[in-house]
Amino acid sequence: MAGTLSFGLSLRDTSLVILFFNLVCCIQTAYIGMLGPKTGMRQIIQARYSFGLYSVAIITVLNLIAITGFTLIAVILGGQTLSAVSDGKMTIKVGIVLTGLIGLFVSFCGYRALHLFNNYSWFITFICIVVAVGCGGKHLDNPVPVEPASSSTILTFGCLIVGFMLPFNGIVSDFAVYYVPNAPAKRIFWYVYAGIAIPTILLQTLGAAIGAAVPKVASWNSGYENYSAGGVLEAMLRPAGGFGKFLAVLIAFSLIGNVGASMYSISLNFQATFTYAARVPRGVYSIITTVIMIAVGIKIADSFFDSLENFLGIVSYWPGVFGMIVTIEHLYFRKGDASTYDAAIWRDGRKLPVGIAAISTGILAFGIIIPCMNTLWFVGPIGKITGDIGFEVGIVVACIMYIPLRKLEISISGHL
């Protein structure tokens, strides 16, 4: 909804930006996902073979911020929808608490339960969305007229799409690792690529169409003002009466699968930060994260879309640089050979890479990214003219700098 509702782009322009940026971004994520089953390592452990045992802690912290932020978005959306369905009898705060606690419970059930839940819940959610479109579809072909889009606006909105997609780089192997090691790499790539790209493009495009119609449909606009995105969804389903409310509740609870899966990765990331952190049970990290999310969610729920845009603007830069470093490490220095990821040294700081090359590349990339940013909270001198091109510039700098710095690191340390 942000493209049409917040950025003032036309539905056509928004849809094209969604299509292009998602199709491009998912390539990197799907490629990294192939390494999960081949190495047998989850994402942050795998990253140690580029960033080293100690420097990877910086990536872990950034990853935790990104995952927790996306989980927070899901919790807020669930709370808003439940509150809208109850006509405000259940406050958004209570809805956020309820969604967060149920998601925490689901995360305690383990990966197999999460996998089973998501295997079936997607179809139920799909039916609910189809019904919602059927109830409100007559309004979708009459969007509000807008001015022609500028290249600056398109690039800045594109950066938000990047911020939504590329953080998967930091968690994709947490789940792809469950594929069998001898599965064809191309098949894994296309499974991951299609599994992320297709539903994201379809749902974001639908959201853009809904956002374009919100100002002209009184009930949708009222729902948006009172309950943000959850209120719009409830308003779309209102013509279906009680059945529509039931479907809205199902959609709200479908987000629990996202929350539970994110909690799974969050706890793994905490344990991978430092060696001693693995001694703490994963459930403790999930509980702490849930408490923080509920508290923050209650605070920012009233300014949901501003908070969403701020968050996506923050997290859209580092995953691209991280993904490029990991990809170059695998293709150039390890010659695409998964056997070079020696599992026996996964926590041996002396035998793992030092990590200076990877971290230095990241720092240099961000030194160029900052003046190219164009976000709600900061606009750099270059980004002010061009729109947000931080993501593109960061990837180019990583490509240029990592190879010579890593070669220097190898020559000094004497090993990969």
TrEMBL record:
Name the domain of life: Eukaryota
Regions crossing the membrane: 15-33, 53-78, 90-108, 120-140, 152-178, 190-214, 246-264, 284-305, 311-333, 354-379, 385-405
Q: Which GO terms describe its cellular component?
A: plasma membrane
Q: Where in the cell is it found?
A: Membrane
Write out the GO MF terms.
transmembrane transporter activity
Alphabetic keyword roster: Membrane, Transmembrane, Transmembrane helix, Transport
Q: Which InterPro entries match?
A: Pur-cyt_permease (IPR001248), Pur-cyt_permease_Fcy2/21/22 (IPR026030)
**Membrane topology per record:** Multi-pass membrane protein
List the Gene3D superfamilies. Hydantoin permease
Family (UniProt): Belongs to the purine-cytosine permease (2.A.39) family.
* The protein's name in its UniProt record: Purine-cytosine permease
- Native species: Calycina marina
